[in-house]
Amino acid sequence: MLRALRNTGIIVIYQTPDMRVLWGQNVPAEWSQDGDIFGKTDADFLSGPMAGRIGEMKLEVLASGLPEKLEFHEGIEHGGRWYDMWIDADRADETDEIVGVVTTMVEVTDRKRREQTLRTLLREVSHRSKNLLAIIQSIATQTGRHASSIDGFLDRFRGRLQSLASSQDLVTSSNWRGAMLSELVEGQIARYRDEGDEAVHFEGVDVHLNPNAALHIGLALHELVVNSISHGALSRPGGQALLTASLSPGAANGGDSALVLTWSEATGIAGLPERKDFASVALERVVPMSLDGTARFDVSEERLDYRLEVPAANFETA
Question: pTM score, two decimals?
Answer without folding.
Answer: 0.65
